[in-house]
Amino acid sequence: MPASSTTSAPIEPTPALNQSSDLSHSPPPKPNRPKPNRLKLTYDIVMIIAISIDLLLISIDAILMSNFSSNTAPRLAMSETLNWYQNHVHDSLRTAGGFFTLFLIAELLLRWATAIKQKIYYRWFFFPFVHWYEVLGCFPQLRALRLFRAVIIGRRLYQLGYQVLPQPWINRINFYINLLLEELSDRVILTTIQTFRQQLTDPKMHKSFIDSTIARNRDEIEAAVLSLLRTELAPKLQALTESSGGGAMIATEMGNAIKEGLANTPELRRYLRMIPIAGTLIESQLQHVGHNIGENVVYALNERLLDAERIDALMVAIASGVAQIDTDNSALDTLIASIIADGLDEFEAQIKVQQWKHQDMLNL
Length: 364
What we know:
rod-shaped, about 75% helix, 15 helices, about 375 residues
C-alpha cells in the first residue's frame, strides 16, 4: 500500500476546547421562555382589551342604573344627565353587550372545535369543564366571571415576558391576595384549634387521645429515655468507679461504718480484753482491717456492677420499662394535658400574629 494511505490527517482542536478558557467570561444564560405565536399573542391582547372594556362598561352601567345613583344624582345636580343615560344609552349598551356575549359564545365554540381537532384534551368533552369560567361567563347574570379569563390571559402574557400591568400594581395585587389567604387560613386554623380544645374536655376523648398517642410513639419514647439515660445517668454512675470523688467517699464511709460497727460491739471488745497485753492491739488492728475491707468491697462492687456493658443493659431495661408505662395514671394525664395546652397556646399565639402588617406595603 502507498505510504500516503497510512498517514493520518492532522487533528484540529475542537471549538469546545478553544472556548473552555472563555467560560468564566461568558454572560449568564437567560431563562428559556417559549417563543409566542404572534397571531395568538395578538389575539390574546385584543381579547383582554375587549373583555376589560366590556367589564368596565358593565360596571359603569350597573352603577348608573342602581338606586344609589338615583338618590345621589339630585344632590350633584346630575338628574338630567342620569335620565338621559337611562333612557337613551342604557338600552344601546345592553344591545352591544348582547352582541359581545354572542361573540364570546361563537369564539368559545370555535376554540372547542379547534381543541377537538388538535386533540388537546384526553376527551372531547373536557373542554367546557376546564374552561368553566368562560362557559358560565356567557350567561348575562354571570358576566363578572369574564374577569377570570382576562386575568388568565394577563398571567400568560406576564409569563411570556410582557408587562401587562405596572410592577407596583402587581406587587400590591399579590400583597392583597396573600393578605386575604392569610386571614382566611388563620380563621380556619383558629376554629380548628378551638374545636380540638372542646373535644379534649370530654374525658373519653382525652383518654383515647393519650392512649393512641403513647401507643403510636412507644418506640420513640423508649429511644428518647434511653438517650437521656446514656447521656446523663451513665457517666455519673461510671464516675463512681474512680478512685476519687463520689466512689472514694462512699468507700471511706463504708469503711468508717464497719469500723464503728466493730468498735460498738461490746461482745467483741469483752472477748478481746480477756487477752492480756495484746487484746487492745488486736482490737485496734481489727477495726483498721474492717475499714479496709469496707473500702475494698465498695471498689469491687463498683467495678463489677458499674461496668459499661452492665450499665448499658440496665439503661435499656429502664427505658423499655418506661416506654411500657400504664396510661391509667393521673399524673401522666395531667402532664400530657399541660403539654398539649401549652403547645396549642403557643401555636394559637403564632397564628394570631398578622404577618402582612410587618410588610412595608401599607406603610404602617
